[in-house]
Design goal:
Layout: H1 2-21, H2 29-41, E1 44-48, H3 55-66, E2 70-74, H4 81-85, E3 86-91, E4 96-101, E5 108-112, H5 119-123, H6 126-131, E6 133-136, E7 139-142, E8 148-153, H7 166-169, E9 172-177, H8 183-193, H9 207-216, H10 224-237, H11 240-243, E10 247-249, H12 253-269, H13 277-288, E11 293-294, H14 296-300, H15 305-315
Parallel strand pairs: 1-8, 1-9, 2-5, 5-8
Antiparallel strand pairs: 3-4, 6-7, 10-11
Length: about 325
């Protein structure tokens, strides 16, 4: 009963967070949901689509409702790894150098247009994303929890961009595709725009609440039928005969684990202490789309990762 009350109370708080965010953000329901999934999963999220679709505003607003630190870093071709993590600065009074910590020492890190920086800069995030620490010279510094990297990339202007390596992509739990608003939502945006700067965002959860919620995810019940359903989806992607002309590399067991993790958080957000098949289906695309390596034939035929995942979900049945 005690745990049931925890789940119910957290669900109410999450709904309050969403309501607070809607004061500034009109249409990005999936984005806000995925940001919360990434946060409570303790992993990172990649956001993709055109500029000016409220990605930065969404992250900034969410951080305010949670009372977490937020830093935005603009990735550019001339960026250096030290620009993200540290700088060695000379103190003329002490006649010595000291290390200055840069923006990565924060709770929310927005790596804006991450694919505009070269690979050596992208790789500078790997240790922080995987181990939640950074090494400077001979010293290792632990990053304060919660620590989440939210990276954006713009698929429209490819000139001067650098594709994220597979090792970097695999650090992201989710890849969320940002959509344009509907006509009705566009009108609502126009109505809200005049007062947007005057909207005050309240803090709903504390840092301790977020850390407690992350621990609560481990207590979500998962039936064996759900585990079988996840494994069936994974093994369907590895059907070499059926998908040999579409998929070059199959997904790894890590995807199974992260699909389960994201589904558990979605159940938690919904106020449930157990996972249902609809949770799996709801997050399958965002967890898998950046881990499917399409064949040249699929790319030539303009077949997308989402279409293949949709096909797989249509084939695999719940036991």
């Amino acid at each position: 009963m005690e745990n049931k009350e925890k789940f119910t109370e957290l669900n109410q708080k999450v709904q309050e967070v969403f309501s607070e965010i809607w004061k500034k953000i009109v249409w990005q329901e999936e984005l806000i949901r995925d940001l919360m999934i990434a946060l409570l999963s303790r992993w990172h999220i990649l956001l993709e689509w055109a500029p000016w679709l409220a990605k930065t505003l969404s992250v900034d607003t969410l951080s305010k409702t949670l009372g977490l630190d937020f830093n935005r870093m603009q990735f550019t071709p001339d960026l250096l790894p030290s620009d993200l993590i540290w700088a060695k600065i000379y103190d003329p009074d002490a006649k010595s150098f000291f290390v200055k910590h840069w923006p990565i020492f924060s709770n929310f890190i927005l790596a804006d247009e991450i694919n505009r920086a070269p690979s050596k800069v992208q790789s500078a995030l790997l240790e922080a994303m995987a181990e939640r620490q950074v090494t400077i010279w001979e010293s290792t510094f632990k990053l304060e929890e919660p620590f989440i990297v939210l990276a954006t990339q713009n698929p429209i202007e490819q000139s001067g961009t650098f594709d994220l390596p597979e090792a970097q992509l695999d650090r992201f739990l989710l890849k969320t595709i940002i959509t344009y608003p509907t006509k009705e939502q566009e009108i609502q945006i126009l109505k809200q725009s005049k007062d947007l700067g005057n909207v005050k965002i309240k803090k709903i959860l504390t840092k301790k609440d977020v850390l407690d919620a992350q621990k609560l995810v481990k207590e979500i019940y998962v039936d064996d039928n759900i585990l079988n359903y996840i494994s069936d989806i994974v093994f369907e992607t590895r059907d070499s005969e059926k998908y040999k002309d579409l998929i070059t590399y199959w997904v790894s067991p890590r995807w199974s684990i992260w699909l389960l993790q994201a589904s558990k958080v979605l159940a938690l957000i919904a106020g449930r202490d157990f996972v249902i098949p609809e949770d799996i289906k709801a997050v399958a695309k965002t967890v898998l789309r950046h881990r499917l390596i399409l064949s040249y034939e699929a790319l030539a035929d303009n077949i997308t990762e989402d279409e293949i995942i949709e096909k797989i979900l249509g084939v695999v049945k719940v036991r």
